[in-house]
Amino acid sequence: MFIRSSAFAASVLIITTDIINYLKKNTLKPTINNDKINKRPQNIYKICKEDRLTHQIRVRFAPSPTGYLHIGGARTALFNYLFTRKKGGVFILRIEDTDRTRSTDEYIEAIIDGMKWLGLRWDEGPYRQTDRADVYNSYVQRMLEDGKAYYCYCSPDELEEKRKRAIANGKPPKYDGTCRRLKEPPAYIKPTVRFKMPATGETVVDDVVKGMVHFDNSTLDDFIILRSDGTPTYNFVVVADDIDMGITHIIRGDDHLNNTPKQIQIYEAFGKKPPIFAHLSMILGSDKSRLSKRHGATSVQAYRDMGYLPEALLNYLVRLGWSYGDQEVFSMDELIDKFSLESVGRASAVFNPEKLLWMNGEYIKSARAEDLIDKVLPFLVSGGVVSADYRQSVDSVWLSRAITTLQERSRTLVELARSLGYYIAGDVEIDEKACKKFINPATLDYLVAVRDGLSALEVFTASGVEALFMSLLEKFGVQLGKVAQPVRVALTGNTVSPGIFEVIELIGRDKCLSRIGRAIGIASLSAG
Fold it and tell me: What angle do the packed helices 480-492 and 500-507 form, to 10 degrees?
C-alpha cells in the first residue's frame, strides 16, 4: 500500500464563508443551485490545477466486472490513456469488484482481454478491490475513531418506513440521522457504519468538463460506508483506493457526477484534497436515449467478432465527445499529441454505427496488406475456408496480393475473409440469381472459349489473361462485360469482384479451369 501526499490540490472546492467573500470581491458570483452548471472561475481553477500538476499524474480506469467491456467504458479508458500518455503519467487498471452478487471472474477476464485487444496497456494493476478488505476496514476504523462516522442500528424495515414518511411530508427521502444521536446502542443488532455528512452549506464540483456544479448538502444524507455484513460500499472504497494509489485526476462518465459530493466529503474527512475531476457526457443511441443493446452491439468483444480493427474503434470512440478541427482519422501518436481534457465537449455524443463502419473501412483500406494477414486469418478459420494451421503453409506474398485487391471494397475483416474465400477455397457456391442471369446458353460459347484459352496460355499472368480476353472480344465482336461477367460469376460465385484479369491470375490455372468447367456444365444442361 502506498499513500500519496495530500499536496494534490482539489479542483473541487467546499465553499466557505472566506471563499464566498473572495468571490464577491472579485465579481465572481456562481449561482447556488444543486443542478445548475456555471462557468468555472478561471482564477480559482488555475490555482488548484497548478498546485497539483507539480506532481506526477496518476489516473485510473476502474470498471465494475458486472458485464463485458462496454463501448462507453472503452471510451473512458481511452481518454484516461491518452491523457496519461501525453502527460507522461501513470495509467492504472483497477477492478471494482465489491458487488459480489454481480461481479464474476469471467467478466474480469473479458475486461482485461478487451483492454489488451484495444492496445490500452496499463502501467500498474490490475488491482482488485476484493483483495483490499483489510485496507478498507482500517479506513472505516479511522473514521469511527475520528468521530466522522457512526454505527447505525436501524433495520431495513425501519429505513423503508422513514423513507415513506419523508416522501409523504414532501421531504427528500434521506436518512434522518436517528443513530447519529444515539446514546445507548441496542444489543444483539449488527450495525452498519454511516458517514457524517455536513447538514448545511454546499459542495461544489469544479469539473474540467462540466464546469462548476453545485450540490446542496441538506439534500445529501449520512450514507452507509460499511454494510452490516462487513463489506464496504462503493463511494467509500473508491476514495480509499484513490488516496492509496495517489490518483491525481479522475476521468469518468457523468453518471458518477452525483456520487462526487459524497466522495469529496470523504476526502475532506481524511484531510486530503480531492483529485481533479473530469466527467464525460454519456454516449447516446440514435434515438437520443442512453446507448443500449437495442442500438446494436455495445461490447468491445462484439465489435472484434464482427471484424472491426481496434485502431478504427478507438479512432471512432475518441471522436465521441472530443474533436480537433475537422480531422476525422488519427494515428495513435497523433491522438496522444493532440488530446486534451479542455477539448472534451459537454454535450452527449450520439453513436452512429454507419460512421463506425465507414471508419473501419478507411482503416482496412489504408492498412498494409501484409499486416492484415494475421488479423483476417481467424475469420477464415471460423468460416471454414482454411484450417487452423493454414498460416504455416500459405505463400504470404500471394495472400498479400489477394488482400490488396479486396481492401478497397471491404469494410470489415468478415467481409474481407468472405471475399478471400474465392481465392483460397477449392470451389465456390454460385449465387442463384447470378447463375440464372449469366450462366446460360447465351454465354456458353464465351465460357468454352475462355476455358480453352486459359488452358493453352503459356504465361499465366494478369497481362497474359488480358491479352487473351482482348482477342476473344475481337473474335465475338462484343464488349468486355459480355465475356467477363459470366467468367466472374463462375469463378467467384457473384457479380462483383476486383478486376477479372488479376482475379484469374490469383485464383490460379487449375481452379479456374475447374470452376469454369462446372459453369459450362450448368449452361449446357440449361440449354437442354
Answer: 30
Three-state DSSP class for residue 160: helix
pLDDT given at position 527: 66
pLDDT tens digit string along 32-55?
A: 233 433 333 333 333 334 444 447
State residue 92 phi and psi, 5-degree precision: -110, 135
CB of 299 closer than 8 Å to CB of 68: yes
Query: Which of 38, 238, 54 has the alpha carbon at shortest distance from 136?
Result: 238
Q: Are 282 and 347 in contact (CB under 8 A)?
A: no
Identify which of 183, 177, 213, 214 has the alpha carbon closest to the alpha carbon of residue 195: 177
**For residues 320 and 345, what is the distance between their CA atoms, to the nearest angstrom?**
9
CA atoms of 179 and 155, how far apart (whole Å): 11
Cα torsion through 375, 376, 379, 380, rounded to 10: -140
* pLDDT per position as a tens digit, 96-143: 998 877 889 999 999 999 999 999 999 999 999 999 999 999 999 999
Residues 6+ apart with CB under 8 A from 74: 114, 118, 300, 313, 314, 317
Q: How many whole angstroms separate alpha carbon 328 and alpha carbon 315?
A: 8
Interatomic CA distance for residues 511 and 427, integer angstroms: 8
Average pLDDT taken over every residue of the chain = 88
Alpha helices per DSSP H over 218-368: 234-244, 260-269, 300-305, 310-318, 332-338, 353-366
DSSP H helical ranges for 245-289: 260-269
Contact between residue 252 and residue 70 where contact means Cβ atoms under 8 Å apart:
no
> CA 424 to CA 403: how far, in whole Å?
11
Region for 230 from its dihedrals, namely left if φ exceeds 0, alpha if ψ lies in -120 to 50, beta otherwise: left
H-helix segments, 457-499: 462-476, 480-492
pLDDT tens across 49-87, in order?
Answer: 444 444 799 999 999 998 999 999 999 999 999 999 999
Which of the residues are catalytic? 293
Beta carbons within 8 Å of 223's beta carbon, 6+ residues apart: 175, 194, 195, 197, 233, 235, 262
pTM: 0.84
Q: With H, G, I as helix, E, B as strand and everything else as coil, classify residue 214.
A: strand
Residues in the chain: 528
**DSSP reduced 3-state for 58:** strand
Check if the beta carbon of residue 310 is closer than 8 Å to that of residue 116: no
